[in-house]
Each structure stands twice: as structure tokens, then as C-alpha cells.
Design brief:
about 55% strand; Lipocalin; about 130 residues; ten-stranded antiparallel sheet; globular; mainly beta
């Protein structure tokens, strides 16, 4: 009986495995047309996959808190462009910031757009 109770407690102590979360998001900046993208968030691995509407995709490490998931993509040559995304886990709002910096010039003010995300069903897979 003690063994069965011990096994029961051990099972309860196992961490729940979180499945990836699939979102479609849309942001707007001033009067520009909406920018749409999809995101796959895998908290178990700490990874985020971001796909722009034109099909361009990037993977990033996610920063996970109780209320937000943040991730970014940085491209540098003579200038650096950082695209940072923060998704609110409570209300599914999203903020996107683009920061451009150049060597010896400094950083331009960020271009920030806001919007919302919607949960999507996991895609059907064959493997």
C-alpha cells in the first residue's frame, strides 16, 4: 500500500509536458496595412518559430515568463536590425519593435507596432 501511494505521489510530481502552441498574429503601425505572421511556441524546448506572411521563417530562443513570451531576430552587417516580438500570454496582445543601429552613429528610435494573436489548432501531420 505504501509503495502504491509512493508511486502515486511520484506521478503527481512529474512535470506536465507542454505541447507547442500555434498562433496567428497581426500587427499595425500607424496607417500601414496590417502585418500578419504565424508563431509556434514550444516552451518545453524554449524555442519559437516565426513565419512571416511571405513565407520567410526564423527560429529563436524564447524568453518565457508567467505573462509573456519574448523573442528576437538580429541581422548585422554595417548596420544591425533587431526585430523583437513580445506576446502577452494572458490576452494574446503582441508588440513588435524594429530597432536599427549603425556603427559610430548609434541607434534610431524603435518602430513599434501592436496587435493581437489568435490560437490555432495544431496542424495535422503524417509523421
Amino acid at each position: 500500500m505504501k509503495l502504491a501511494f509512493g508511486l502515486f505521489l511520484a506521478i503527481l510530481a512529474l512535470p506536465a509536458t507542454a505541447k507547442p502552441v500555434y498562433l496567428t498574429c497581426s500587427t499595425t503601425f500607424k496607417d500601414d496595412p496590417p502585418r500578419e505572421f504565424s508563431v509556434t511556441i514550444d516552451e518545453e524546448t524554449g524555442k519559437v518559430t516565426h513565419q512571416f506572411s511571405n513565407g520567410t521563417t526564423f527560429n529563436a530562443d524564447g524568453l518565457f515568463t508567467a505573462t509573456e513570451v519574448s523573442y528576437k531576430k538580429v541581422n548585422c552587417s554595417s548596420t544591425c536590425m533587431t526585430q523583437q516580438f513580445t506576446i502577452n500570454r494572458i490576452n494574446l496582445s503582441v508588440t513588435s519593435s524594429i530597432i536599427i543601429s549603425a556603427r559610430n552613429v548609434g541607434e534610431a528610435p524603435p518602430i513599434t507596432s501592436t496587435g493581437t494573436c489568435a490560437l490555432q489548432a495544431a496542424p495535422a501531420r503524417q509523421f
